[in-house]
Predict the 3D structure of the following.
Amino acid sequence: MTTPTTGRDPAPPRTPKEPQPPARRAGTGRARGPGGPGRRGILLLQLAAVLAVLGIWGALAAAGSVSATALPGPGAVFAKFPELFGSDVYWQAVSDTLRGAVTGFVAAAVIGIPLGLVTGTYAAAERSSRLLVDILRSFPVIALLPVFLLVLGSTPSMKAMVVFIACVFPVFLQAQYGAQAVTSMIAETVDSYRIPRHLRFRKVVLPSATPSIMTGLRLAATTSVLVAIGVEVLTTLPGIGHEVVQAQQGGASAQAYAYILTAGTIGYSINLLSQFAERRLLRWRPPAHTD
């Protein structure tokens, strides 16, 4: 239908726009998905999972389906902690394990990060070292333990060396991948402007590689404690692993499980500290999850 004055069709009526939800600012934390639990809900779910595992553990121990020597009840295990906390042997074992783990981890970071950045920045260095790296990282660390025992003996230096071998390759490879993450467009721009190498490394390569480096350090930090305890179990070196073996051989299975829970708590605490350090150092990076 046309109007008599203009001869044009009348404009269709406007429909009111639906209000749009306000945009979430970057850096305000992970958004909750549609219908998904919030942070408090996730914590409750995690706590429920822990309680469920403890309930199953207690039910198995109470039913007697597994011998008390092999699987003591959670009450007997947790009752050992007040006694262990007041013992110097317990804290000395924790100190010995952490000393070997930290020494090997720091050495792996000091050596692995620079080598990874160099081989990731220069293609010739990466190609020439690829075969050697693939061969060396294929050896299981525990299989090399007899060799280290023959060369270094059953000493704390040997434990730190085994931890170093286990941690250096994750750190090295993550640093290498991070240095290779520089896009070709950025690399061509840097080359066209003839930016000095030290400035290119500090302003381009290092910021690009930092997230990957932090991932490698987080993985290596947890691995260092596990490997240190494994070396202590298989040798006579003092530490948490040695105390687990001593308690198991002496028939104190509840005390052995208490040391095992201590090892798990240490690993979990190291992972939380690594995540906190990563968030603090990478505050400039936008959040990875936006859903």
Notes: The chain is about 70% helix and 0% strand. Residues 22-31, 287-291 have pLDDT under 50 and may be disordered. Residues 197-234 form the longest helix (38 residues).
